[in-house]
Amino acid sequence: MIETQYERMIELGLCKEGDAFRKRVFKECIGEPSNRRWNCNGFDLNPMQCAILDTMYDAGEGETFTPKQLLNDATRKAYLLSGWTHRACEHRKQTSCGHDEQNKNKVTLYKLVDDEFVEDEVHYIDNFSYGDESEEYQALSAEALRRAEKDGKSTYYYINRSSYYGECAWENMNNPDNGLPCKHHGRTVSQLYAIQFEHKERGFRCSKMSRYERESDFNIIYFDDQDLEALLTSVSDEAVISAIKFEIPKMRTDARNWLKSVKRGQYGLTWWWRVKRIQEDEDAKAIDEALHDKTINGWTYRKGRNTYHRGNWEGKVKEYQLSAYNWRSNPLKFITLEDAQEALSFLESHALSSRYKNGEADLGLSISPFSQTISINHERVHLCHNYTPQEYYEACHAGTISNADNTLAQFREYDE
């Protein structure tokens, strides 16, 4: 029986592929059997569950179904696949270019020139396995050994053997019609298929061989090669409805909370609240992308790193920091240089210290200009139109802006 993850069901053609939004909805709503990051594979589905979910999702929010109303070509096809399995086989559309198909060894001899090994001779010889070297290869190995003994080096640097399959007629060895690699000159590509095994002598079919049977005794039968229309008409409606009824309880568990019972025998999809959330998230991401690098009144929008970190309007502000020996890591901050100098003079005249210089406390006070980046989220974009970054920074610390819009400082009033 076919039972695998959602992405593989799409590859098998048993789930509708749809756009990126549909894929995200199905992936998140199907869920995962574990919340561990290192085991984040989704729940397995079978063809009937995929057909039920596709039908309900395509119908839209608020639609409900009885098992009989779920009867369609998708559920009939899913019923037919109950006796099939899936396997990664060689891609059936992969072909060779048919040009210069060889299977030889490319043997390259090198020589030492100015302490560097450079390519000297290239030979194409018949293929062989280690321990059964041909006379031609033995002669080339002997020549490499002679060169190594002459130069006092290792033979390893003088000879190289690699496989050679000829020159492919296609650009980059890819089929221009379907983009698949050349079967002879490139690599072999696999594809998931729904298959059955047919015994070569006895003719029976099965989806799984016993431990005592050999695969060489069977032919692989592909579901894609079957006459689907004829098979669909041969399926009994009662059998399909019975299979649908069998699957519905599995889709209403605590872990797989995909369906809900509206009333007796009537079922609906439970995903719609999550679909709305995903739609809002996609809309926000689109806004995030559209606003990136736009500027308003000295503010620049920077998009977020991922779904959980939305972008912000950012701006540079200047301040002055007053630090001392004992509080370098947490300096006092001032908006103007005059305020910082006034505070420095006051501290030098009045602060106590464990050491004094010329009658004044030696605190190691210093003033340094500092530039920092402040940010506000897009919900407060009206502030970007009303203030430059520096004006907003000063207004926040002066208390001339409401607490609701003040993201840098909060002013509280207490009853006496």
Summarize the structure in short.
The protein is built from eleven helices and 17 strands.
The parts where pLDDT drops under 50 for at least 5 residues are none
* Euclidean distance between termini CA atoms: 77 Å
The number of helical runs is: 11
**Amount of helix:** 25-40%
The biggest sheet amounts to: 5 strands, antiparallel
Summing up helix and strand content along with how strands pair, one would put the structural category as: alpha+beta
Number of E strands: 17
Explain what this protein looks like in three dimensions:
The chain is an alpha+beta fold and 416 residues long. It folds into 3 domains: 1-90 and 189-291, no CATH class; 104-164, no CATH class; 292-398, no CATH class. Helix content is 30%, strand content 24%. The protein has 11 helices and 17 strands. The protein has helices at 6-12, 20-30, 47-59, 73-80, 135-151, 228-234, 237-247, 272-291, 337-350, 381-386, 389-398, and strands at residues 64-65, 85-90, 104-113, 116-126, 159-164, 190-199, 205-206, 218-222, 259-263, 266-269, 295-296, 299-302, 312-323, 332-334, 356-357, 360-361, 366-377. Helix 2 crosses helix 8 (272-291) and helix 3 (47-59) packs antiparallel against helix 4. The radius of gyration is 37 Å and the shape is flat. The chain starts with 5 loop residues before the first helix and ends in an 18-residue tail after the last helix.
For this entry, give a set of tags.
416 residues, alpha+beta, 3 domains, 5-stranded antiparallel sheet, 4-stranded antiparallel sheet, 11 helices, 17 strands, 30% helix, flat
